[in-house]
Amino acid sequence: MAPAASPGQRLRSSGTETPTGPDEVPQGPAVGSRLTHTAALRSRGLRVLPQISHRPSPQTPGPLPLRTSHRRSAEADARPGCAAEGAGPSADSAPSCCGVSWDNVGLLVEPSPPHIVKTLFLTNDLTEEVMEEAVQKKADLILSYHPPIFTPLKRVTWKTWKERLVVRALEHRIGIYSPHTAYDAIPHGINNWLTKGLGACNSVPLHPSTSPSYPTEGTHRIEFCADTAEHLETVLSKTKDIQEIFCLTTFPVRVEDKEQTRVSLNCSQKALLEVVALLSQNSLLDHKTEILILQKPLLPHTGMGRLCTLSKPASLSDIIERIKSHLKLPHVRLALGTGKTLDSPVKKAALCAGSGSSVLKGTEADLYLTGEMSHHDILDAVANGISVILCEHSNTERGFLSELGDMLTVQLQNKINVIVSEKDRDPLQVA
Q1: Which residues lie below 8 Å from residue 170, measured CB to CB, with a gap of 6+?
Q2: Is residue 23 included in any domain, yes or no?
């Protein structure tokens, strides 16, 4: 991983130039999708550095998807969303960028405007029974953690239960909003709530989230040296004809005891080959030319899953009792890791609310805590000496709604009636 550069610092990887102030940063997501032309660039003798990771963005997504709006702004009026004039939430302000790409996060059903929200109804799963409860309690907006509309609907009739949910919502002018994986990722979201079942601990995201945008314009940075004023003038004049070049700067450097001018510019991937071709035509491609792949910054304390380090190790049996108490469950399912017993100490635990197989897989820990995992992933964990606790999918999520309700009540200054469903429950039970 390449070192990070704070604003004002420059990165060097050539043997003749020295980096300044390298910092270690967490490993970000792979950027292979942006390396389409890497082989072509290397065939020209260019050195393509793997990635440049910027410092995490100071802006952390808020814990709630709703905000009070005493008076609708012009921006709010210009975009869709359920808003309360005088005292209500604008549901379109959720940090949906934190949701994963396959998810369906955001406002899913919207009655015709204006739509005044006086009663907000919280549920983990929006079933027909829960919808009837919301209708009876005169809800104006349903916040359903799981999206009731996931795969696209080709029609809205009375034939299937999910279509009927949409019909009932529109008939009774009820909006439906789903935060789902955005709430999994954000600080003070569902996974952070789940960590409380372990006792006192420090936690970090297993898979950190990245900002939806780059910290600067462009996806790549190109740096090269011009040894004569003629070369420099020629290249700079021709770059004006290339679209999507940003942040062009020059500064003097000494390379191999020669005074030269270093040029640095940001560009899009589309412009990258054009710039390389221009440098090649002007004999400016050499071992000192660098192409840096820019990476989106990490969002602090935000991401999927959590790796928890307990303040004080506890036995597995104690952890089980803590989790059952936190989730208000009479039982959980347990797979003991190879060589482990109920008395084995737990120092590190990896967790993921809901279905944790893909998030937890490969993580080194004493314990995996999640709602459900595939049979073969459980076998892999056990073979590696990792114990697994399963609580059923929605049992690791639903308890968060009470905490969320309290936070929303405070945030909305008691101007909205916030209700948590009494009918919502996990569909599985012990027979």
Answers
A1: 109, 111
A2: no
Q: 0.90 exceeded by the pTM?
A: no
Residue whose entry in the numeric block shows the structure tokens 């869709």: 80
Both structure tokens of 18:
């020295």
Q: How far apart are CA 252 and CA 263, in angstroms?
A: 9
Closest among 140, 118, 142 to 128, alpha carbons compared: 142
Q: Return d(Cα 292, Cα 155) in angstroms, integer.
A: 48
Report the number of distinct structural domains present in the chain: 3
Is position 1 within any domain?
Answer: no
Q: In what order do the strands lie in the sheet with 141-144?
A: 106-109, 175-178, 141-144, 119-123, 417-420
- Which residue, 306, 430, 428, is CA-closest to 372? 428
Whether pLDDT at 204 is above 70: yes
Confidence band, pLDDT 50/70/90 cuts, at residue 210: confident
Give Cβ neighbours of residue 387 (< 8 Å, ≥ 6 apart).
316, 334, 335, 336, 337, 340, 344, 346, 366, 367, 368, 381
pLDDT digits (tens, 9 = 90+) for 385-429: 999 999 999 999 999 999 999 999 999 999 999 999 999 999 998
Position 76 pLDDT exceeds 50: no
223 and 268 assigned to the same domain: yes
Domain with 350, as residue range(s), is 190-209+301-390
Q: Can you list the alpha helix ranges (DSSP code H) found in 172-315?
A: 181-185, 190-195, 229-239, 269-281
Residue 231 C-alpha from the chain's centroid: 45
Q: Which of 295, 315, 347 is the last residue of a domain?
A: 295
d(CA 332, CA 318): 13
* 167 closest CA partner among 188, 189, 148: 148
Burial string for 208-241 (b: 16+ CB within 10 Å, else e) reads bbbbeeeeeebbbbbbbbbeeeebbebbeeebee
The answer to whether residue 377 scores a pLDDT higher than 50 is yes
Asked if residue 243 is part of any domain, the answer here is yes
Closest CA to 259 of 239, 285, 232: 232
What is the tens place of the pLDDT at every residue in 154-183? 999 999 999 999 999 999 999 999 999 999
Same domain, 78 and 197: no
Residue 241: both structure tokens together: 């004809």
